[in-house]
């Protein structure tokens, strides 16, 4: 009858992951929406990218026909995806950073410095004068805390959220942009690109 049936015993399986990448916000022309593309990852390339990573991807650009109801409306148009052959991380991840003896010695010297907290805070956006308390809060945001799992099953997260509020022109955006550059994974977004619920703040 011409029907084909899949034989799982004779099939060969390999890891597969489909991800979507988006154009960097600072590279999008004014008034335009960031473009996105579907990426197919196979084998060792799966789980090589995480949300917020900045990557260069090389691969094969492949068209694929639409399925279902979209195929009826698409006509001769086809969808496209990129079959990745290489993924290069543009930002260093924590687990890839190497600790040299020089770095260990510098850390040991800093541990005994009573002004370590202030020095680290001042190293955040040094071109912006003042805002010591804000920089200290952003430093704690970057460092994070320890996730605590209690015996009753409750999980207390160690990370914190920071909400900066103030008059226009007091360097709020510049501080946040600096944080996204320092953090291994960071995405800078504005009110138009975020959900209204995610940006709602109540003053009690």
Automatic annotation (TrEMBL):
It holds the Pfam family MCM. It comes from the Eukaryota. The keyword Signal does not apply. Residues 116-204 form the MCM C-terminal AAA(+) ATPase domain. One of its GO terms (biological process) is DNA strand elongation involved in DNA replication. Keywords: ATP-binding, Nucleotide-binding. InterPro entries: MCM (IPR031327), MCM_dom (IPR001208), MCM_OB (IPR033762), NA-bd_OB-fold (IPR012340), P-loop_NTPase (IPR027417). SUPFAM superfamilies: Nucleic acid-binding proteins, P-loop containing nucleoside triphosphate hydrolases. GO terms for cellular component: DNA replication preinitiation complex; MCM complex; nuclear pre-replicative complex; nuclear replication fork. The keyword Oxidoreductase does not apply. GO terms for molecular function: ATP binding; single-stranded DNA binding; single-stranded DNA helicase activity. Coiled coil: none annotated. This is MCM7.
